[in-house]
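On to our target:
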Amino acid sequence: MILIVDADQVSAPSLARLLRYNGHAAEVVPSPIEALSLLPTRKPLAIILDLHLLHITGVEFIRAIRADAGYNDVPMIVYTGEFSQRAAQEALAAGAADVIVKGTVGTQSLLARIEKLLPAT
């Protein structure tokens, strides 16, 4: 399962549909607190998150996940509508595997970048 942590009611469900259409289980969770509560019972293959989350930033969320050694192998992909070089560098330094700006890549490129980071099955 690919976990999408994003409160955007348009892009998050669209991304989930794209992933499902291409054979991946995907779940959208709008709150990072809810996402963190899911982790003990279900380990995702990847986490896709926005930088602007409810209650905490995307970078703080990445750091919280990376603080648990059990999730060091889970790729985290930032998929955000607002881009700054500084924010991208912070996300990558915190442990994100990639930063993708919404609307700057086509669906096939987006899918390819996500699939490249998924574990081999």
User: Anything to note?
Assistant: Helices lie at 11-21, 32-38, 58-66, 85-94, 107-117. The mean pLDDT is 94. The first helix runs from residue 11 to 21. Residues 2-117 form a domain with the Rossmann fold fold (CATH 3.40.50.2300).
